[in-house]
């Protein structure tokens, strides 16, 4: 193994997502670096596993647009990886979506 083009420091949620994206680029050699024995053992381990849908973002703002777009990505990623996701919704989201 030779030198790497990219080293991803940390294998939590963000680091793992970055490493996954880098793996799609065959011309780059990347290596994840994690201090723990396994991925997701730091602050990512304490995550609530709730996907934020942007129900509280002000409509029309950049935040609202980015959160809505981003909220669709985990389900697509999970489906492609065979990871089950159960979209149960949340009360605030249900209240905001009512006419």
TrEMBL record:
Protein name: FAD dependent oxidoreductase domain-containing protein
Cross-referenced Gene3D superfamilies: FAD/NAD(P)-binding domain
Superkingdom of the organism of origin: Bacteria
Domain FAD dependent oxidoreductase: 5-90
Pfam families: DAO
